[in-house]
Amino acid sequence: MREFSDLSTPDPEEGYVGETLRSGVKPLEMRYSQINSAYRRLPIAYRSFTYVNSVIEGVVPPDKYAFAADGTDRGLRLAKWNIQEAMRAIDKMHESGRHVQFITARCPAKLAMLPDLYEKLKELLEKERFAHPEQLCLEFPQSLLFEEEEQVRAGILAAKLLKIKTMMSGCGETDCPLANLIHVPVDMVLLAPRITALADNRDKGNSVSALLAFLRMLPVDVIGEGAETDEAIRALSRADCLGYIPSPSYGGTVRHGSLRMTLEDAVSQREEEEM
User: Fold this and answer.
1) Which residue has the higher pLDDT, 264 or 68?
2) Are 152 and 175 in contact (CB under 8 A)?
3) Is there a contact between 104 and 137 (Cβ–Cβ < 8 Å)?
4) pTM (2 d.p.)
């Protein structure tokens, strides 16, 4: 496996990347989804999504390429770009007077297993002259729990030493071995939409509450992805969850921004109650 710090951006004049650039379109574009406080229902953080713009395939969302890229050098190269772009987004928030707890940068599980990850992340922080590592959050897929436990644990602890947050998505999916979280000390988990949807269910609500209590006791902060109703948000709040991401089918009373907003749109969101 190549070293993280050795992964450079391809020559922009080569191949389809060059064609895309010459067409005036950025090959990579980051979009954002707000993470709202489960209690206050206002933005406290943002989850990022990287779209690939291709002259051949058009706009390619992360769910179409992530699985294929995650086990390759290309996935690590993309993770490095994601981290750098998230740093720049955090700096932009500070420049604009916005206060956010964190912005995520999606990374493959292989990143957590890199040797000397502490040194490589530290080098990247210094290269970018980034002064807010506590607001950077590395987001890993649930495949993190299938990797060699001690290596993953060492990688997560390396990020913690640099004050960088870590989060695992897909918590509660059918291929997520939840018990392994006892030994993998991520700071947060993103609850799978299929579980979030049951938070206010008459028959399954108590089971979801028990699951959330287990996660909170690890301890990890919990964010519910795909909240569809105000009742589900209230259930997440009662379970002491950190926040939620609204579902595309959300039908409650809270006004949310686009689920794939630009950085400019994210920066312009209000974070305080209107008087």
Assistant:
1) 264
2) no
3) yes
4) 0.90
